[in-house]
Amino acid sequence: xxxxxxxxxxxxxxxxxxxxxxxxxxxxxxxxxxxxxxxxxxxxxxxxxxxxxxxxxxxxxxxxxxxxxxxxxxxxxxxxxxxxxxxxxxxxxxxxxxxxxxxxxxxxxx
Length: 110
Description:
Layout: E1 2-10, H1 14-22, H2 28-31, E2 41-45, E3 49-56, E4 59-66, E5 72-80, E6 88-95, E7 101-109
Antiparallel strand pairs: 1-7, 2-3, 3-4, 4-5, 5-6, 6-7
């Protein structure tokens, strides 16, 4: 299992990140160039969660999105043609006093 962890400081607000990451409709490729709309299927969605299949170039992943915490988005792999069940993405957003946001990202791949 591989874990990738990185941090970045940005001027985007936590709300902007949550909106960008969780906008799973057609046209997602405009925000995420490696996402191909032909793989995109929203199985279900609610105010703070979604079940979405997405991918590109023959690789797809079905993810359970959870953004019930306004400073965190967790995407857990439900199914994939390449990644195992312990795979996930966690984005944590910490507002800083200067108006910027500290972004902390952990990607786990099994």
